Amino acid sequence: MEQTRYIKDLARELGFDYCGISAAVQLDDDARRLEQWLKKGMHGSMHYMENHFDKRIDPRKLVDGAKSVITLLYNYFPSERQREDAPKVSKYAYGADYHEVIREKLKTMLARMQERIGAVQGRGFVDSAPVLERSWARRSGLGWMGKNGNIINKQSGSFYFIATLITDIELEYDGPVADYCGTCTRCLDACPTGAIVSPGVVDGSRCISYFTIELKDQLIPEKMQGSFDNWMFGCDTCQDVCPWNRFSKPNTEVAFTPIPAILNFSTSDWEEMTEEAFKTIFRHSPLKRSKYAGIRRNLHFLERK
To answer: Which residues have a Cβ under 8 Å from the Cβ of 113 and sit 6 or more positions away?
Structure first.
């Protein structure tokens, strides 16, 4: 109990908004769902999702002797918005790359645990390994799985990064919370491409985020023409319409302060930007995942709507 309390206090000290803990076990139900999802090809060209299936469903294959999965939520909801007439960028990408920011916090957290508790072995992950983060967040009571596939926290909504720290120490475990989506279908109704095919099931191969970030092909399929609602990088539509996000509060992480270009660039500014300027302005931004060529492709696709 003392170690669990220390870890949760430490998480708050490091800026995490929520911390939940689950026993490190094999996720049999999630394994079946993931297998069906992959069989239906809903991962599109994201073939890496087919790899390391055994590690995705069992944290003990990622960390020897794993006993606990610590799941953490980190708020990224911004206090400012882009100008209305600009190509839209998902809110998670307004500031610095979250991988860099949260990875350092996880390293610090593990080091502090080792100082206080002793010989703790563990590994921290933030969107960087075959970990079913949302499943662990749900199991540890940080929220429920919304119909849009996101974890929704009753107090604060869904604009959170999810990180996990898998360790070999036994702790006190939390349990899941109830699902409060009820009969609401706003996210399904609002999805511009109909990617939310049923409650809790998102066809990744139809998601705007997939096309604008993950798809590495030269061209976005013509059949998607006119359905992107001016989203250039990612998409927040299903979160923007979610009633629970009325409780979202701006984050306090300095590193997530919006890059001025994201807030202020007009369509012509984006179109006229050189590759050199892109690399300079967005060198620490999630936008570098799409690279300059990807942003140019996305802009061209939006222009042809």
So the answer is: 6, 7, 10, 120, 122, 167
